[in-house]
Design goal:
Largest sheet: none
Radius of gyration: 19 Å
Oligomer: single chain
Distance between the termini: 9 Å
Order of helices and strands: HHHHH
Number of domains: 1
Structural class: mainly alpha
Number of strands: 0
Strand content: under 5%
Length: about 140
């Protein structure tokens, strides 16, 4: 980030912290509400938009994963032919473990950025910070 960014107030740090913390429980809805409440604060807008974009990315990846699981199961077990084959079950387990991994990563990222926001840091999530910067006008 640029060095000319203002030092956030305690209230701004708290709101940014809440945006990251709420994503654990509400997905992108909580951070989006925080953004609309405090979008005039560059710090809060940046952190809340990072949380929103991160959650949208996680949701999209999860949706694709679930879609792949469903397609794999349907393709591997023709109607009326009995239980799915071992290969289909193995693919299902791999996708399921990937989904669990995504959930754990989501939790770790949320906690990490919650801590960074509480300290008043302009910490960037490398996958979504560019989008958040542009959307927040930074």
């Amino acid at each position: 980030m640029q060095s000319a960014l203002p030092e956030p107030t305690q209230d701004e740090r708290t709101m940014a912290l809440m945006a990251h913390l709420l994503q654990i429980f509400t997905g992108f809805i909580g951070p989006l509400v925080i953004y609309f409440i405090r979008r005039q604060s560059r710090f809060v807008a940046f952190h809340s938009l990072q949380a929103v974009f991160w959650q949208l990315l996680v949701t999209a990846v999860s949706f694709v994963g679930v879609l792949l699981i469903v397609v794999t199961i349907l393709a591997g077990s023709p109607q009326g032919s009995g239980p799915p084959s071992g290969g289909v079950l193995a693919v299902f387990v791999v996708f399921w473990l990937a989904m669990v991994g995504i959930s754990l990563l989501n939790l770790v990222v949320a906690v990490y950025f919650t801590i960074k926001a509480s300290k008043g840091e302009w910490a960037e999530n490398p996958l979504v910070a560019g989008w958040a910067r542009r959307a927040a006008g930074l």
